[in-house]
Amino acid sequence: MRNFLSIVLIFSFLHSGAQNKKHATNAKRLTEFKFKELIGGVILVKAKLNDLPGDLNFILDTGSGAISLDSATVVNNNIPHQPSGRKVSGIAGVREVDFSPNNTLTMPGLKIDSLDFYINDYQILTGVYGIKIDGIIGYSFFKRFIVKVDFDSSKLSIFTPGNIRYPKQGTLLHPAFSALPIQRMLIRDKAEVNSNFYLDTGAGLCLLVSKQFVSDSSFLAPKRKPFAIQVQGLGGKKRLSLTVIKKVKIGPYQFRKVPTTILDDEFNALSYPHIIGLIGNDLLRRFNLVINYPDKEIHLSANSHFRDDFDYSYTGVNLYFDEGLIIADDVIENSPAFFGGLKKDDIIVAINNNFSQNIILYNTSMSEVGKRIEMIIRRDSELITIHFIVGKIN
Fold first, then answer.
1. How far apart are CA 240 and CA 330, in angstroms?
2. CA nearest 192: which of 170, 164, 221?
3. What is the model's pTM?
4. pLDDT of the residue at 7
5. For 215-237, what is each residue's pLDDT tens digit?
C-alpha cells in the first residue's frame, strides 16, 4: 500500500563504516531469523497474528506506507474490522480500504503490538507466487526498528533504534521519507537524468519509470522497441511495457543494460513529476541492506548476487496459480507464447517435462533467452503440446 506525501530532494554519499553517535544508547539486536526469497527477490516472512493458530505469510515491503492484511485472511479468521475512510493508490487503481485496529504480530523472537492493519485483496499476489499471501509489512513496522536484510544468508535481523555500526564496505544513503524512502539517482539511455525514485522491496523488478516521464523527456533511445507485458498489482492487472536502458547508478554503484518497466501511471501512483519511478528488489537484492527508518538511512553493501545476470527473457504470458491449477493469463499478441499457440485460460500441465506444478520453477524455466519451451496444456478437456522459443527484450 502506498501513501504519497510531500517530496524532498535527497543525496547519497560513501560511508566509512564508522559508528554514528546520534543516540544515547546503541542499537540492540532483538532477533534474527530466516526469510524466503520469492520471484524478483521479494522477501517473504512468516509471523503469527494475535492468537490465531499457525503462521501467516507476509511480504516485507518498503513500498508500503502502512501494514495490511489480505481480505480473504480477514474473512477466514473472523478478524474484526471497520471502514477506514481512506483510499489507497496502486499501479492499477484506487480503492477504499477497511482496517483492523490494535493487533499483535509475532515474528520469531519478537512480539509487536498495537498495530492497525489496513485490509486489501491480495488474491492476485497469491496467484503470482503460488503461495498464500496473507499481508504486507510496511511503514508501520519499519518505523519502529532497524532491519538488516542479508540476501547471502537469507537472514533478517531486527534491532532497536540507536547507534549502529554499519558494514565497513558499502554506501550510506540518506533518502527522503514520505512514509516511503525516496532516493535520488541517475539513469541514462538516450539522455541522462537525475531524479527521485522510491526504494521498493515489494516490487519484483529492477526499475520502473513513468510513461509520462518517458514521453516528456525523450529519455529512451529511438531504437528501443518496448515489449508489451501484463503485471499484477494493487487494484488489479495492468498492461505495461518492458525494455532495457543503458545505465542505472545508485550511490557509487553502476549497472549496465538494466531491464526497465514503463508504467502508464493514469492514477499518478508515483506522484510524477516529483518522482519518476521506483527501484525494485530484483536490483536491491544485489545488496545486503540495513534499513534504518528511525534515522532515515539505508546502507547498501554489494553481496554475492551483485554481478548476477539480469533477466532479459520475454514470453508474453504470465502464469498464475488458482485452486490448485496453473493457468495462462492474457497472452500478449505477437509474443513468443502467442505464436506458439498458447491462449488465455489454458491450464498448464507441464513445462519441459516438469509436472511439479511449481509456479516458481515454471517461471524460472522460461527465463533463459533462446530456450525451447515445450508446454503440455489442457484446453477444453483436451491435452495439447505446444512449443515456442523464449524471446529477448532490448
1. 13
2. 221
3. 0.89
4. 22
5. 999 899 999 989 988 765 555 56
Residue 1 pLDDT > 50? no
Strand partners, 248: 187, 255
Nine cell digits for residue 286: 544485489
Cell output for 375: 508446454
Cα 341 to its chain centre, rounded Å, is 30
- 227: which 3 cell numbers? 515489449
As given in the structure block, the three cell numbers for residue 236 are 488489479
* 149-153, 177-181, 342-346, 374-378: range with lowest mean pLDDT: 177-181
Give phi and psi for 386, each to the nearest 5: -125, 160
SS3 annotation, the chain: CECCCCCCCCEEEECCCCCCCCCCCECCEEEEEECEECHHHCEEEEEEECCCCCCEEEEECCCCCCEEEEHHHHHHCCCCCEEEEEEEEECCEEEEEEEEEEEEEEECCEEEEEEEEEEECCHHHHHHHCCCCCEEECHHHHCCCEEEEECCCCEEEEECCCECCCCCCCEEEECEECCCEEEEEEEECCCEEEEEEEECCCCCCCEEEEHHHHHHHCCCCCCCCCEEEEEEECCEEEEEEEEEEEEEEECCEEEEEEEEEEECCCCCCCCCCCCCEEECHHHHCCEEEEEECCCCEEEEEECCCCCCCCCCEECCCCEEEECCEEEECCCCCCCHHHHHCCCCCCEEEEECCECCCCHHHHHHHCCCCCCEEEEEEEECCEEEEEEEECEECC
How does pLDDT run across 84-143, given as a tens digit for each residue? 877 776 655 677 889 999 999 999 999 999 999 999 999 888 998 999 999 999 999 999
| CB contact at 8 A, 359 and 130 | yes
Q: How far apart are CA 228 and CA 230, in angstroms?
A: 7
